[in-house]
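Hi R.,

As promised on Friday, here is the backbone we talked about, encoded as structure tokens. Could you run it through your design pipeline when you get a chance and send me back a sequence?
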């Protein structure tokens, strides 16, 4: 019996050993299979990657011409091949054009990177950023202006306009303007509100186009003052009054449509103009226009450093218009004796064309010294202007002659209540 039990136990032990050995062999086999499968998959993936790198077109990722603002970081998007090597650097601390070449074997690709100073290009709207239209009236497109401080103004006809306004449906609409100078692109947006006809309060007493001249500050006072000089503290009080009381600032194109009886303008409408492009206006007046977000117009005399003024004082809240190119001088025989009264229609038109090229395709004129003749008015019509202004005092009403519109003179030293009474 003992012998049989021993033999049985021996057999059981041998069977257990065989089972363990079999399981161990299976584990090794499974591990070997797993490693083989892994190796095959890795080889396949590597083959796909290599094939992709070889077969995939060698191309630039992103644009061949890229624009980066000075001081910003340049992130190179590279090419479709990770095996390509890039040659060249981009110094974003300096304005300039840079080149990066990517090489892959015998092939090469090139990317041009333009580092620009976007602040040198200014875009602004003609008229109000928040335009108001009476339901059912036509929407008058006032346009925008673009000035490159290095190169001068861009023809406003080259500014692209996107968006539309349905004046039959009250509500808000957006019009987007985009312009370009060199590699610098700028955009600005106008919000147009179509007001229900029953809620629109229309102007019935006339629109004042305010005629300012010079702005100064107490610590930088001119040696000789007259009514053409307005101190900056008074000017700020005036702007504050206009903005706090909801005044609207139409463009000259809107004003022309109002004069022609095509549209209504809001009850509280006013336009601010500044003759002669005096340095004090730019130094002390323009920062206040910016502060209160009120658009103004500078009437520039071309031969009196006009080019440099347009470029040097470019600002989103100041559009430049014509005070003539070279007619702001004596030589005539009417009014203040301005030479315009001694000029032919063609001579005046040629002068205006030079002036408008200087300011970027302008559409308004302030007659030099306010002198105007029938010949001058014919020239204004021939030149295609929207408005031309004299120095005759008064508000503008429907039916007025757009070629000889009055203005309201702002006299320095007047109180705020006197100013308000003229609006």
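Update: got your reply. Pasting your designed sequence below so it's all in one thread:
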């Amino acid at each position: 019996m003992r012998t049989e039990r021993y033999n049985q136990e021996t057999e059981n032990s041998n069977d257990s050993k065989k089972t363990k050995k079999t399981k161990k062999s299976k584990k090794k086999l499974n591990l070997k299979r797993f490693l083989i499968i892994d190796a095959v998959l890795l080889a396949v993936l590597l083959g796909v990657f290599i094939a992709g790198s070889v077969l995939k077109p060698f191309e630039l990722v992103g644009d061949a011409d890229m624009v980066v603002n000075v001081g910003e970081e340049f992130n190179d998007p590279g090419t479709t091949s990770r095996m390509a090597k890039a040659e060249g650097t981009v110094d974003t601390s300096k304005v300039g054009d840079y080149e990066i070449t990517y090489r892959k074997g015998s092939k090469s690709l090139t990317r041009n990177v333009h580092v620009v100073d976007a602040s040198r290009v200014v875009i602004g709207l003609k008229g109000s950023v928040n335009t108001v239209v009476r339901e059912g009236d036509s929407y008058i497109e006032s346009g925008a202006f673009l000035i490159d401080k290095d190169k001068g103004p861009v023809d406003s006809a080259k500014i692209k306009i996107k968006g539309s306004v349905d004046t039959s449906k009250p509500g808000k609409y957006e019009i987007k303007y985009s312009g370009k100078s060199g590699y610098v692109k700028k955009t600005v947006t106008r919000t147009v509100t179509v007001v229900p006809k029953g809620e629109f309060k229309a102007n019935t007493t006339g629109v004042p186009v305010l005629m300012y001249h010079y702005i100064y500050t107490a610590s930088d006072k001119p040696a000789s003052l007259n009514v053409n000089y307005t101190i900056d503290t008074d000017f700020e009080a005036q702007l504050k009054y206009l903005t706090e009381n909801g005044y609207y600032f139409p463009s000259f194109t809107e004003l022309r449509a109002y004069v022609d009886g095509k549209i209504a303008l809001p009850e509280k409408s006013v336009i601010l103009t500044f003759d002669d492009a005096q340095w004090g206006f730019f130094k002390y007046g323009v920062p206040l226009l910016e502060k209160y977000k009120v658009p103004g117009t500078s009437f520039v005399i071309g031969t009196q450093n006009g080019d440099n003024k347009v470029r040097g004082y470019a600002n989103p809240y100041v559009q430049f218009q014509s005070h003539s190119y070279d007619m702001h001088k004596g030589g005539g025989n009417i009014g203040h004796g301005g030479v315009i009264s001694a000029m032919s229609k063609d001579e005046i038109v040629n002068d205006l064309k030079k002036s408008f090229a200087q300011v970027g395709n302008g559409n308004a004129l302030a007659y030099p010294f306010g002198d105007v003749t029938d010949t001058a008015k014919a020239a204004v019509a021939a030149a295609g202007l929207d408005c031309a202004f004299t120095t005759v005092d008064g508000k503008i009403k429907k039916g007025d002659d757009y070629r000889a519109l009055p203005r309201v003179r702002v006299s320095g030293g007047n109180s705020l209540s006197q100013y308000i009474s003229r609006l």
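One thing I noticed while checking it: Residues 200-421 form a domain with the TIM Barrel fold (CATH 3.20.20.370).

Thanks again,
M.
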